[in-house]
Amino acid sequence: MAKNRYFYCLFVMNTLINILNFTPRELIDARFDGAQSSILVAVAVGTLFIYLFTRVIHKFPGQGLPEIFGSALPKLLASPLIFVYAVLWYMAGTLILLSFVDITLRFISPDTGPYAIMFGFLAVVCLCSRIDSLSLLYGLEVTLGITIPLILYTIVKAIINPDFSWDAVLEVMTHSLHAPDLNSIAAATFTFSGYINMAVFNRVFHGLKLKHLWILSLEGFLMLLITFFVPIGYHGTVGIERHVYTWFSTADSIRIEAFLIERMLYVFYFACITLSLVSAIIQWHVGKELLLSLLPSPSGKPKTKLLQELVILVLFASGALALMRLDQYNLNMLGVFLQHIRWYGEMLMIGLLFWCYWVVRGRRE
Amino acid sequence: MRSLRGGIIGIILLLVCTVLAGCNFKDIDRRIFVVAIGIDPGKEEGVFKVSLKLAIPQGDVTKIDEKMLILTEESESISEALRRMKSKVEKELDYVHCKTIILGERIAAKDIRHVTDWAVRRRDIQSILNFAVGRPGALEVLQVKPPSERIPSNSLILAMSGQGTESPFISSVYSYQLMRNIYENGIDPILPIIEAQGKEQFLIDKIALLDKSKIKLVFSPNETRLFNLLSRSNLRTNFPAHIGSGMYQYYTESSSSSYRIVTNRDEEPYIRYTIKIRAILEENSTEEMITHHMLKKIGKAGAAELGGAVKALLVKIRDSGMDPLGWGLHYGARHWNNGTEMAEWGRLYPRLNFQVNAQVEVKYSGMIK
């Protein structure tokens, strides 16, 4: 049984990896028309989602999404839904891997072939996503313990740099008075969507109780501000639109004067790769568990289960390899599309969970 | 069961290993490191002359004897020149440790945006590399080899980064800053000028002001120092103070500067600069002992002199029409009428006046009175 603090770990993981790719890009694209107000809306919406979700999931101690849907919805409806969610989770993990292959190629090792990097990542992710949920949570906690100090160091170092252009940040602040923009909201709510992994991880939680919700919204809000404003301080209000991986370009612009390595890029890359691999592992674990629940359960036959997992993971891996043909712009479009779908999916899931709760309670009475 | 799982893991790991061996990773003894790049205009119009300064890796650190090599190639494009140069060396050229890009003065007088775009776009070139203008040309600057230097191009790196000498005349510009200021509205880029003086010495004490693309104005060393005083805090330098026929020099222990753009309706717009300096007396041309009263007087005289010099510099910047200190961006950042603020600023700028409030506080008279 997992303690409540692992829920916070899942949340923090998402707020940290949102720095990576799509969230800053979408927000920065809308910096002159509504990113700032979108951040505020996203904080409110994200907090509301977490609140509703934890309230309803509390009523289903020790049950994952398949068990809840299975008990309350007709099978004809439950199975396709579970399948769609599984694909969604799988795509989320794949997108992280694809972005990271691209980042590694650009910033770390231009000479290595993309497929070699992908194979390395896939080996780690496929092997680790088979580990049971509870162990994954423990692993996540340890990883956060290693990476949070590094990411904090990067952020502090970025902000205290005398060459950080506060005027550029203030200039973008004066563009705040705009109606929020849907793309930005969808991208920004990703910061708050770490809770959604509870769809499977709730199996190891028995009666999740959430204390101090405001800490989560404050943390998410601060991370969104940092995600959005720090790259602008480094690359200017206009120049920023020319950068592809804004946060990696920013880390590349920070110099460590007194340390073994001079470029902050490597520190930041190490923290990010660790975190995003763990995050991809968790996403694929959820995707795999959801798909497994659709297959006939091999009661007492570990060999069949192994075979099923193997088939799923091979499918996952070959899908990821096939998606490597996308170029930079296609990948970005897919990312934005997925951000939207994910957000609507979250809404739908919370709605469905309330519906399930209503059905189950009706039956009991 | 156990053995099956172990077997699968083993097979996958083996597969991964074969893939890794297949990629073209090169060991350090098959690489040669580019430490500085110089870009000049070529003989013909529209042709770049690209020079690379290469450091040759050596094993034993204690017995290092500086070995370097300069390659030069002319081509219409920078990348083409670099590819051609690959056939001039037997090892793979590695740009990861490149810390300086020198633009020949004639390139900087024409257009720097092409080179900047290339340097930022290249994925293996850092964003924290120094950009500078080379005089008379980039190649001449690359060829300078000070006798005190032990690692190729290290003298330039040390001088520009402030890790070695802390000269008040040197200001460094990283490529991300150059890129930022080229595209930003309301701030114009600057570049330090490195002059080659013979084969063994260089001089970095001037700044070039650019109007987004090319050099428009070059500051004298004194103006450069004042500019650095305004653009960064805690500049370590000395300034003079004259009282009667006596000349005093004070050393700035700490310095800071801030400004406010004041636009009242009933008076002309002006910028009020406040400069605060805490200083130590360093030189005294008279034979008199320094009293407390004298210390105050030196501070006052120094402040008046500094204020006058800074004001002259600010007027010169305004008359040049460029904005190296980012006043326009500062103005925009404090006004919410985003559609019109830059046009407003454009009308304001030529009419700007300046008030300089310099406060020099000489705290000590040094070791003797």
Automatic annotation (TrEMBL), chain A:
It comes from Paenibacillus silagei. Keywords: Membrane, Transmembrane, Transmembrane helix. This is GerAB/ArcD/ProY family transporter. Pfam families: Spore_permease. The keyword Membrane applies. InterPro entries: Spore_GerAB. The chain crosses the membrane at residues 7-23, 35-54, 75-100, 112-129, 136-156, 182-201, 213-234, 266-286, 306-323, 343-360. The keyword Metal-binding does not apply.
Automatic annotation (TrEMBL), chain B:
The keyword Transport does not apply. The keyword Signal applies. InterPro entries: GerAC_N (IPR057336), Spore_GerAC-like (IPR008844), Spore_GerAC-like_C (IPR046953), Spore_GerAC_C_sf (IPR038501). It is a lipid-anchor. Transmembrane segments: none annotated. Residues 26-195 form the Spore germination protein N-terminal domain. Keywords: Germination, Lipoprotein, Membrane, Palmitate, Signal. It is found in: Membrane. Residues 206-366 form the Spore germination GerAC-like C-terminal domain. Belongs to the GerABKC lipoprotein family. This is Ger(X)C family germination protein.
